[in-house]
Amino acid sequence: MPDVKRWKYAALLACAVLAAGCSSTSKKELPPAELPDFTAEVELKTEWSRSIGDGQGDTWNMLVPAVDGDSIFASDVNGEVKAMNRLTGEVLWSQDLDLPVSGAVGAGYGLVLLGTLRGEVIALDASNGEEKWRARVTSEVLAPPVTNGDVVVVQTQDDRLIALEASTGSQRWVFDNTPAVLTLRGTGAPQLTSRLAIAGLSTGKVIALDTQRGLPVWEQRVAVPQGRSELDRIVDIDGGLLLSGNTIYVATYQGRVAGLDLDSGRILWQREASSYVGVAEGFGNVYVSAASGAIESIDERSASVLWSNDALARRQLSAPEVFSSYVAFGDLEGYLHLVSQVDGRFVGRTRIDSDGLRARPLVVGDWLYAYGNGGKLVALTIR
Question: Pyrrolo-quinoline quinone repeat domain location, by residue (predicted)?
Answer without folding.
Answer: 78-309
